[in-house]
């Protein structure tokens, strides 16, 4: 599966953006210079075209012979995402470490994750905090929230929930959608001493304004769990599900199936029954979570017991169209 559009001449800029290089800020010693970008153009073109073998060999040459930090970072992405090869988290971490030592902001963040999750060495929370902080100092602001999650749990530093919130809020206030999501989750699921669903909703709303599908989902959860407002929750869940956010499929189906019944039949309305079937079928086809798949399968059996069999062909076609549209969208991103 490609993550770049074919023949995209700006792929080098996309990789650089992932790396966190501040092209629009003052020049830094670690910032890739124009000749660096030109030198990597051929490798980037092969990557954009999906010729992973040639691209990997070219990046490897620049990473080893030229000690090019952007090439080192890109090799880490190869192993992290499995571009043309099996995913190898340990190998990815080794390349991220080289790139981090050469000042690549996102590489510092990924290296922090490597230490946090014990991907290439035993788990080391103190080292994880060090690299998250390094990434943040280089401008990768969302790393502040990764620091906050560890401090919230007392891993690598004394437990301090309020300090964790303050650190993450710096990134969220700077406009980082991922930081806004993480801050919302800290308020929603963090230590009991700082749990604050209204504040969580505030930060999820900021992320939702930027069309974050995860934010839609969490706003649905808050309306369902905190406000007992199934109608508004369903609206947020389905907004996320319709654009392919898998965690929203099952709650969308559940709320449709459990919606108020028709007065005359005391059964789900035709529209709600059809929508429940659609999202349950989509869950069954896309989910890799055994618990989620089991729940969807059980609810689907109940739906099929009362749904007219004549509906199935048309509804199955709608599910296929939804999934095909998602696959098409992913293939060109």
Structural write-up:
- It contains 18 helices and no strands.
- It is an all-alpha fold and 333 residues long.
- It has two domains: 1-140, Serine Threonine Protein Phosphatase 5, Tetratricopeptide repeat; 230-333, no CATH class.
- α3 (41-48) packs antiparallel against α4 (52-65) and α5 (69-81) packs antiparallel against α6.
- The chain starts with 10 loop residues before the first helix and ends with a helix.
- The model is unreliable at 1-9 and 22-34 (pLDDT under 50).
What's this entry about, in short?
This protein has 333 residues and is mainly α.
Q: How many strands in all? A: 0
- Our estimate of the beta-strand percent is under 5%
At CATH level 3, the topology of the largest domain is Serine Threonine Protein Phosphatase 5, Tetratricopeptide repeat
Q: Which structural class best describes the helix and strand composition?
A: mainly alpha
Estimated helix fraction: 55-70%
The poorly predicted ranges are 1-9, 22-34
Structural Rg: 23 Å
How would you name the CATH homologous superfamily of the largest domain? Tetratricopeptide repeat domain
Largest sheet: none
